[in-house]
């Protein structure tokens, strides 16, 4: 369905590969996805890119958006001492006042400054532990004097977390928006905001969000099809609590050995064997004959059995030079894999590892330090067969209370 | 499965459309996790034997986890598997990115979902390969999506 002037459905919180390190969706990918959903009767009229901790002023998606009959606007998601905050309608004056890369901006100043420059700040995923407003209101009774709007319906939050946000909005008389917080294309529009009338520009959007009489409502994607009813939102009392609350926000700058970054070392060697392929396939209940059946594989594209690409996940290599992060416990946060050539039984693979980068941000589990490692894999012929980047997050942990 | 049966599962570029979905269900038990860790090979240090997060309930709870977790490498392997299952024997994974947003726990009932997000002819018209983009997700029975990612897969064309 093309854009109309009766209602506008906008996803107000979207991350893309253009500006968010943890996103996998491209801007054009989102636009194609919105077009595909429209063919099936859903409404996604546009979205606002709110990249984490950065805003590139001269980036312009107007032409691309027009090609898909869609709206693409730009805000920013900043990190404050009460969690994450979406800022819409920012101006150069706003950026003069704040370094948006800082992960602990003073929230009152952010809300005030956004309003004074003619924009608006919105408390993101309000019900989420640590990085949403509710925790800080409950624990420290922080003032909501400058807060007018919160994201009470967030596509990346659990139902319980969204209910916490909704309850805060009801008790503190705050307006609510809905948004997907999408990092990947298929998440776009899971939650959105429905505005009465046409919203096509950032000025339109900010005017609606600042106007206490403007009509806007959080909705889920399935509520956008013609004839669908917007369901009542559950409250905390109606849901079972579940939280992954762990560490704290704030603290001193993390010290680490910067000379460890970028140095590549030989990390070890392993041989691809029929036994290792069989063991991997058994663990994953993998039955693909390309990996398990000589007769079928002989007729296949590689003229013989090859290893599943995922077998590289089982290769034990020594770690790269240690940057010496002395903070919390490390967990795997993500990976990027590139495959260049198949692995065959008998291949002997050398790994070369390095630390690509170290950076910090905040999330459900509080403060987080990320270490990105890169390993490239080379076969006995000197050919690069694959490259794996693994992102490890260091975060604080707290024991789960009660019986298991 | 015969060779002919297997090759008949091949997916071709012309047959894909944005929005197509493909799903596989996985139920990683404690035994599966142990088997995966035992399948690890190479000269480096053994994984999963240090702090007990992958195997021991008490250790996991001490670390703030409801119960032992599935190693990230195994979750990545499960995501990789859905892509290889989807693409068929002549397909090739060009790249795969995954992001862990919550832990995957032992005995989670996982729906592994791959969705075509871009199967347009743009790249082909520019003289490039027939690459399809997928979103890949592990979704648990609580409706959470602890692992999400994207894959680029090169598929054969029917004319080839």
Task: Give a structural overview.
The complex is a heterodimer of chains A (about 400) and B (about 160). Chain A is an alpha/beta fold and about 400 residues long. Helix content of chain A is about 20%, strand content about 30%. Chain A folds into 2 domains: about 5-240, Alpha-Beta Barrel (TIM Barrel), CATH 3.20.20.140; about 260-395, Thiol Ester Dehydrase, Chain A, CATH 3.10.129.10. Chain A is built from 10 helices and 15 strands. In chain A, α6 (about 160-170) links the parallel β6 and β7 (about 175-180). The mean pLDDT of chain A is about 90. With about 160 residues, chain B is an alpha+beta fold. Chain B has a domain at about 15-30 and about 70-155: Hotdog Thioesterase (Thiol Ester Dehydrase, Chain A, Roll), CATH 3.10.129. Chain B is built from 5 helices and 6 strands. The model of chain B has no long low-confidence stretch (mean pLDDT about 85). The chains are: A alpha/beta (about 400), B alpha+beta (about 160). At the A-B interface, α1, β10, α8, β11 and β12 of A face α1, α2, β2, α3 and α4 of B.
